[in-house]
UniProtKB/TrEMBL annotation:
Organism: Candidatus Avisuccinivibrio stercorigallinarum
Major localisation: membrane
A single cellular component GO annotation: membrane
Topology class, membrane: Multi-pass membrane protein
Entry-linked Pfam families: MFS_1
GO molecular function: transmembrane transporter activity
Annotated transmembrane regions: 29-51, 57-74, 95-114, 120-140, 160-179, 185-206, 237-260, 280-297, 304-327, 333-359, 371-392, 398-420
Keywords: Membrane, Transmembrane, Transmembrane helix, Transport
Taxonomic path: Bacteria, Pseudomonadati, Pseudomonadota, Gammaproteobacteria, Aeromonadales
Cell compartments where the protein resides: Membrane
Coiled coil: none
Matching InterPro entries: AmpG_permease/AT-1, MFS, MFS_trans_sf
Name the record gives this protein: AmpG family muropeptide MFS transporter
Domain of life: Bacteria
Length: 428
């Protein structure tokens, strides 16, 4: 398999000044596409719920809306079509990017014109279209990012993407909610959709990535990505890779699945939780992601997986301390801020390395399908294992629960001996 031009660009990257790599056009693309990729998700999980609630929709029905976001979990099923077909005369990547972005602008903007109490099925249909278009946009943007970044820039590019993805939540989760107090919902959703316009402009201005080997028919698009992955890694290597993807973030993910109920049980008020969690948490995570991306330019992805994995795992023990002192009524807001800040910083570091690893394991010829498969597989713990956290806490208590979460992070770290040996960067 020949390398893409992006990979060849990375051959002499080490000779360039660090600031030129950080402020390159490719990093700007990662930031804009990250913002456009993240915002629709927050529209679904924050803005839609507020819209329905303010219009008097029953909470049970609002809860059912989570079902229509399933495309995010199953996006690998239609990723081969994105890998195979070109649309709108713009190529495999830009064509799908433009199509999904326009679809998102139209569907998000249309929601505000519907009265939920009179047309719940229509709102649900629009929400499903938003989720489907958003998941498809994720497929193509992930593929595009992998194809334009040389291997040595995957860490920084991925971290900038992830942080822009998170910051995008401030629009539907902040600005749009504030605007809803002053303007009709039609203007709120139209204004929110307008934040995706920069993505359309970017799509029309950037170049299509050049990948020498692409699927020539649908059969190749459906079969070759999996065949190539197994042939390149070997059956044992492929299974180890999938197991690692499943396990690397399971401890951290489970530890924060019931964060708000835990803080409440420790005696903290909702206002304290909101101020500390939303401010200390999000900005510590952003700082961790940015720091991780810059460090990976110099230490590589393998070493980052080791170091950032430890930074991700050790702070879970802070929750053990918080649970121990909270049970005695001795946990203060300062300790809460320190624990949340340390955990969020570690999560930001770990996520930067993890996303970079997934990108590196995806072959540029089949990026959309392989990346979608690995990212979907990594979401299984969040979807199913996190569902069991409430039962575990009920059975063993908070303190023991967080000890279990810490122990669950160890197998993923041990697999690094096989999938990402220290100092040995994997080459395709």
């Amino acid at each position: 398999m020949q390398n893409s031009p992006a990979q060849n660009k990375g051959d002499n990257a080490a000779s360039r000044p660090l600031w030129r790599e950080i402020f390159s056009a490719r990093m700007g693309i990662c930031m804009v596409t990250g913002f456009c990729s993240g915002m629709p998700l927050y529209v679904l999980i924050v803005l839609i719920s507020a819209f329905l609630k303010s219009n008097g929709v029953d909470l049970k029905i609002i809860g059912l809306f989570s079902i229509v976001t399933m495309p995010y979990t199953w996006k690998f099923l239609w990723a081969p079509f994105v890998d195979r077909f070109k649309i709108l005369g713009l190529g495999r990547r830009r064509g799908w990017m433009l199509f999904t972005q326009i679809t998102l602008i139209l569907t998000i903007g249309a929601v505000g014109f519907i009265k939920p109490t009179e047309s719940i099925p229509l709102v649900m249909a629009l929400v499903f279209l938003i989720a489907f278009a958003s998941a498809t946009q994720d497929i193509v943007i992930d593929a595009y990012r992998r194809e334009i970044l040389p291997d040595n820039e995957l860490g920084l590019g991925s971290s900038l993407f992830v942080n822009a993805y998170r910051i995008a939540g401030l629009v539907p989760g902040g600005l749009s909610l504030i605007a809803a107090d002053f303007f009709p919902w039609q203007y709120v959703f139209a204004g929110t959709a307008a934040f995706l316009v920069p993505g359309v402009i970017l799509t029309l201005r950037v170049s299509e990535p050049v990948v020498r080997t692409t699927p020539k028919n649908l059969k190749q698009a459906l079969i070759e990505p999996f065949k190539e992955f197994i042939f390149r890694k070997g059956i044992r290597g492929a299974l180890l890779c999938l197991t690692f993807v499943f396990l690397y973030k399971i401890g951290d993910s489970m530890a924060t699945a019931l964060a708000t109920p835990f803080y409440l049980d420790m005696g903290f008020s909702l206002s304290a939780i909101g101020i500390v969690a939303k401010n200390v948490g999000i900005w510590s995570m952003v700082a961790g992601g940015l720091l991780g991306g810059v460090l990976m330019l110099r230490i590589g992805i393998n070493k980052a997986l080791w170091l950032f994995g430890l930074a991700q795992m050790i702070p879970i023990l802070g929750f053990v301390l918080l649970a121990h002192l909270g049970a005695k009524g001795e946990a203060g807001v300062l300790l809460l801020a320190l624990v949340i800040g340390a955990e969020a910083l570690g999560t930001g570091l770990g996520t930067a390395a993890f996303v970079s690893f997934i990108a590196r394991e995806s072959n540029p010829a089949f990026t959309a399908t392989q990346y979608a498969l690995l990212s979907s597989f990594s979401a299984i713990p969040r979807t199913f294992c996190n569902a069991a956290t409430g039962f575990i806490v009920e059975a063993v208590g908070w303190e023991t629960f967080f000890v279990i979460c810490t122990l669950l992070a160890i197998p993923g770290m041990l697999l690094l001996f096989k999938v990402a040996p220290w100092g040995a960067e994997t080459q395709k």
